Amino acid sequence: MKLGIVSAIFDQSNFEEMIDIVAENGLDCVEVACWPQGKAERRYAGVSHIDTKNLTAEKAQEILAYCKERKVEISALAYYPNPLDENLEKRQEAIDHLYSLIDASTMLGVNLVTTFVGRMPSKSVSENLEEIAKVWPPIVKYAEEKGVKIGIENCPMLFTEDEWPGGQNLMTSPSNWRKIFDVIDSDNFGLNYDPSHFVWQQIDYIKPLYEFKDKIFHVHYKDIKVYQDKLADVGVMATPLEYMSPKLPGLGDVDWGKYVSALTDIGYEGFTCIEVEDKAFEKTYDDVKKSVTLSTKYLRNYVI
């Protein structure tokens, strides 16, 4: 396995500066945030270290040369919108940009795009499955033709009141995964596996690794801390950020030894990327950089 980081946390750095930070920490790879230019719509979104819409072959070669010089690989091109947005204009914008990531992924020889499958928050699971069957087959077919895989992260995007009641991503549980993989049956359509989202949903984050081992294209390392006293006060029907918080790996409730052990059990040898979303390390940009160093040092106990 190769250890890297998601670049969205480096919102104050350009591509070259971001790669330098990754290299200085001795990381092997980076999942590069590729939102549309100037489209910061939420925390950790809107960061764009590669402008995929305007990427040229010449620029792609410059990017690859810089990465090679710093001994850092690009694990995936990342963009996490809602491709099933109930606002059809926003939906189309998200889908159009996804196509640009697929093209750029081919140009860079990365051949992996990480994203969300999306969800209509006000609609049922069944209604959303019907919508996925309409929206996603053309995207997946295009990716297949380009030789690009699409890894869907299992983040519910259900944290605050504006995402209530259903959230913005249906890829939330093993049960939903089976239903979605029945609808989208493709070797190029799989998972970007993040254990932290299962913690607050009270889902086993180890067992699904074995069942879906052939669908795991990319892996995240993010931790979650559930505050039991807060949960006892507001209950599971509350918006999740009322009783839990993202933390650096090792500072939350994920058992990373068991998690990485399971990854070795299934023979996973791909990219694994730290995802930093810990508010305790956001007072200054130096604090952000320290969080990367701390996370890397901790996870090097398991991934060398």
Query: Rg to the nearest angstrom?
Result: 18 Å
In terms of DSSP E residues, the strand content is: 15-25%
Through-space gap between termini = 8 Å
The percent of residues in helical segments reads 25-40%
Given the C-alpha coordinates, what overall shape results? globular
What is the CATH topology descriptor?
Answer: TIM Barrel
Strand count, sense and barrel status of the largest sheet are: 8 strands, parallel, barrel
Number of domains: 1
* Number of DSSP E strands: 10
Written as H for each helix and E for each strand, in order along the chain, the element string is EHEHEHEHEHEHHEEHEHEH
Judged by helices, strands and strand pairing, the structural class is alpha/beta
User: What's the CATH class label?
Assistant: Alpha Beta
